Design the sequence.
């Protein structure tokens, strides 16, 4: 028997029962679409997180004061937590060979005022290095000038939104503003950056670290940001920073080192689990579609008992009758899979157009996997009815008995 | 396609030979002997009518002769070959090459044209499409339906449908034609036309075995078997 004839015989049957064929196709297509859309959501969530943390910079090591760890015993037994200081920052900058830049990071919040308008903002204190370390851009003016971090001038760099809201279209450069009762001159405005690791860089102001610490009467830094010379040297840099700080802190590890890698790993595995869960739910809908195929095929077989008998009388072999029914199942499942892929890609495309900040896109890997699964499901669920059809005794089948 | 088995009759000159053939069905607790120790022989080219009341075993006889059903006991030789020893696939091959079937209810496939219905056996025999079409058209022309090849069964009269079925039975050029009440669903005139067609085919050399209730149809046959309770009571 020729393959074209098999396809044509199956096609004739499927075309005759348009409604049944359509519903089965829809069932499979919905299953396939569900798998594609849900896995795309999982992948997008992961890509979203990766992108957020990629903004941290893959070279970055962040030093946080205090030990973020749940170890046994009383927390107080570990001794007191020393502040991170500008001296710590200097030590890392001068002694760690694999470190390119170090930026101190202090944080306060206060009110910024200009000509009667005021706004509550976060006030970040740092040095000229902060611009490169945090991968910020300027939309106008200049950033904090280099020099001794202890001798900060009374200047301020405004976040994009702060500049817009406070100056209402006027040029802020060179103007004097009042920040937490300190009079500071605006020397620059940041480019748009948005939220990165919990801080909105559009809605803050940056002042020299010494100014910030005096302004808010702080003794220690909020963070030290350390940039390694390359992503590969991050592990070495991590060890050097730890060693330098422990030496300065009486051999106590009263600080925590965070890297982008570590954060990505934590979030990545959580999201992988989420994606697997979504894929599992989607797989169930695919299985339901497969049972739909089996149902349709069983009805088809019992309806066509007489026809099976006729084919046997005309000399069709058992294997050929099996093939005819399997061809139908195969065409239903692959047709449904194709429709499902098209619908899934369309849904993902529409969703991506609506939620532009979520990196939604269909993945070829999932498409191939789900199509394979759909065809396997179609054929394996179609096999049982096809077997039953081919095993009908010819004489009984001719009389329409199944 | 494997080589066609020889259509020659067996050593004793019979194309069909039944020896003590029984076919027993198990219906619940009781046994039904649809064929009860039947022996008979049919020579090539014969026209045999099988008559008898309902439940006398006529249809079972035809199913056994057509290799659609196997005897419970006894021996059936078709062209000298012991059928009961054949595998299911070999039986399908025997049906494909040696036997043409005609049914009371025509058994045409409703969604297919007359031509495609006639092509069906050729499709399963793996004949290529161009040759298939040609053979189907020739077969339809031989039953007088050259102008009906693209009609579907529901566009044809009962007599025309049965002629499509005959064309389908003939298209594989079998040596035996088995007809189960071929005129049962037809009016008298259409029935006579069908019988005339079958007679013509028989004159061309085909062995024809025909089951019928109708004595007028049976009268055309050179030989009539009468059955009752699974036995041949008259030959």
Sequence:
């Amino acid at each position: 028997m020729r393959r074209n004839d098999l396809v044509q015989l199956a096609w004739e049957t499927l075309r005759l029962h348009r409604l049944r064929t359509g519903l089965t196709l829809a069932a499979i297509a919905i299953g396939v679409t569900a798998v594609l859309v849900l896995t795309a959501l999982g992948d997008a969530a992961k890509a979203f997180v990766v992108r957020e943390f990629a903004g941290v910079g893959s070279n970055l090591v962040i030093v946080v004061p205090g030990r973020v760890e749940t170890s046994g015993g009383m927390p107080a037994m570990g001794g007191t937590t020393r502040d991170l200081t500008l001296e710590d920052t200097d030590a890392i900058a001068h002694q760690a060979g694999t470190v390119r830049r170090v930026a101190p990071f202090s944080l306060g919040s206060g009110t910024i005022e200009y000509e009667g308008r005021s706004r509550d903002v976060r006030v970040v204190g740092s040095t000229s290095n902060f611009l490169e370390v945090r991968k910020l851009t300027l939309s106008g003016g200049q950033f904090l000038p280099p020099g001794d971090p202890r001798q900060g001038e009374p200047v301020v760099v405004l976040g994009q939104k702060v500049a817009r809201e406070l100056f209402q279209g006027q040029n802020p450069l060179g103007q004097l503003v009042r920040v937490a009762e300190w009079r500071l001159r605006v020397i620059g405005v940041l480019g748009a950056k948005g939220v990165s690791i919990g801080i909105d860089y559009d809605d803050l102001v940056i002042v020299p670290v010494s100014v910030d610490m005096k302004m808010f009467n702080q003794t220690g830094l909020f963070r030290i940001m350390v940039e390694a010379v390359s992503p590969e040297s991050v592990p070495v840099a991590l060890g050097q920073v730890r060693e330098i700080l422990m030496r300065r802190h009486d051999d106590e590890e009263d600080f925590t080192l965070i890297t982008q890698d570590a954060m990505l790993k934590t979030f990545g595995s959580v999201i992988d689990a989420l994606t697997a869960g979504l894929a599992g739910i989607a797989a169930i809908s695919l299985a339901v579609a497969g049972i739909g195929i089996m149902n349709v095929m069983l009805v088809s077989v019992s309806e066509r008992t007489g026809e099976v008998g006729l084919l046997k009388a005309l000399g069709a072999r058992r294997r050929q009758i099996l093939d005819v029914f399997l061809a139908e199942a195969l065409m239903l499942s692959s047709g449904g899979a194709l429709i499902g892929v098209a619908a899934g890609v369309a849904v993902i495309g529409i969703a991506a157009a609506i939620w532009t900040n979520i990196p939604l896109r269909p993945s070829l890997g999932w498409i191939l996997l789900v199509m394979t699964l759909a065809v396997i499901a179609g054929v394996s669920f179609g096999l049982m009815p096809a077997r039953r059809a081919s095993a009908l005794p010819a004489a009984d089948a001719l009389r329409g008995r199944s | 396609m494997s080589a066609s088995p020889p259509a020659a009759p067996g050593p004793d000159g019979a194309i069909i030979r039944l020896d003590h053939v029984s076919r027993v069905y198990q219906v619940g607790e009781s046994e039904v002997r649809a064929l009860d120790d039947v022996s008979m022989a049919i020579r090539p080219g014969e026209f045999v009518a099988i008559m008898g009341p309902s439940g006398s075993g006529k249809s079972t006889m035809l199913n056994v002769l057509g290799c659609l059903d196997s005897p419970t006991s006894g021996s059936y030789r078709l062209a000298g070959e012991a059928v009961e020893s054949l595998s299911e696939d070999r039986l399908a091959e025997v049906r494909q090459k040696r036997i043409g079937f005609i049914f009371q209810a025509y058994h045409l496939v409703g969604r297919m044209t007359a031509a495609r219905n006639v092509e069906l056996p050729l499709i399963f025999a793996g004949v290529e499409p161009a040759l298939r079409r040609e053979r189907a058209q020739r077969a339809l022309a031989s039953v007088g339906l050259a102008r009906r090849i693209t009609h579907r069964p529901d566009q044809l009269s009962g007599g025309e449908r049965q002629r499509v079925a005959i064309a389908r039975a003939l298209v594989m050029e079998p040596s035996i034609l088995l007809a189960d009440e071929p005129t049962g669903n037809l009016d008298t005139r259409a029935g006579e036309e069908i019988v005339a067609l079958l007679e013509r085919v028989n004159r061309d050399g085909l062995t024809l075995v025909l089951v019928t209730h109708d004595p007028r149809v049976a009268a055309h046959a050179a030989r009539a078997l009468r059955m009752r309770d699974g036995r041949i009571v008259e030959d």
User: Anything to note?
Assistant: The first helix of chain B runs from residue 58 to 65.
